[in-house]
Each structure stands twice: as structure tokens, then as C-alpha cells.
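Q: Could you fold this chain for me?
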Amino acid sequence: MALTKISTNAITDDAVTSAKIAAGTIITSDVADGSVTGAKVNSTFDISGKTVTLPATSVTNGMLAGSIANAKLANSSITVNGSAISLGGSVSTGTQWQAEKTSDFTAVAGEGYFVNTTSGAVTVTLPSSATIGNEISIIDASGTADSNNITINRNSHNIQGAGSNLTIATERAAFTLVYFNATQGWLLKDK
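A: Sure. Below is the predicted structure, expressed as C-alpha cells.
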């Protein structure tokens, strides 16, 4: 008489291996729900050449333990206003105001400058390259631009559509330049 069932206490540990089970012998209906747990499974599976079907649910942030390293992602940065920002990095919003300037300097897009011309005129050189939407803000912080001018050196870009530098000779002048295109160049944001 052939045996059709063997009790688990009659089988020694590691006696049954996958090589001893004929393909197709165990089917889904033979496995009780919840009987295969993580503790009963090797820590790795070789599923090469196999198809794995996952449930039709979305992966949410709550399902992810910890974080995914940027190196593991196909795209590890986003681009904001022409600048690549690493995921997990910080994004600057608004104007980044700099310390007081009392001598000539080259401006950087996204920055604002308190210009003090008490000791003499100051030349602000615009960046050599610019892209649409770049902004630079200037304030006559000392209120002396009427006697010691602030010159905005166009650095080969037009200002207000003209190929000439901009001279600020108004006390307490405050303005923002926004880059538009090669023809118009830097435009005054506020008048």
C-alpha cells in the first residue's frame, strides 16, 4: 500500500529538498494560506528566468523603510531654473541677499546686493552668461548713488534692449534686473 500523507514529525530536518520533489507536484491549492512565512524561506531567491506577479497596489512612501540612495535612482537630480539640484538637497527660493558691497564686484544670478557708495562709485558687472528668468537685485544701501553712482556693466548683454551700461544716479534706488533674451537682455522688473 502506497503512502499518500506523511506527518511532519516523521520527516527529519533537511530531508526534503527541491531536487526530491517532482515539478508540478505541489500546486497553489496544496499550500494553506499563511503557511509559508519569511522565517521558512531562504533569505534569497533565484528567480532568474521566472515571472513574478505582484499585487496590483501602489507603492507608497509609508511602505519604504528608510530612504533610497540617489545612486540607486535613474535620475538623481531635478533641474530648477537651469540648475541641477540633487534629490534630498535644498532649493533656494527668492533672492539670496549678500553682505554689503563697497567696491566693484561681479553679480551672480539669484542674489541681491546692498551697495554702499559712500567712499566712491561702484561698478556691478552682470554675469557673462544668463538664461531666461535669472534675477539680480540692487539697492543703494547708503543713499549716496546720486553723488557716487552705481554703474551696471552689461558684460556683453543688452540692458533694456540697449547695448550700453546702466548708470544709477538716484538716491536710495532699489531695483531688480531679470534676463529675458539676447535682443532685450536684462530688463527692469520694477519701475
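A (continued): The longest strand covers residues 174-181.
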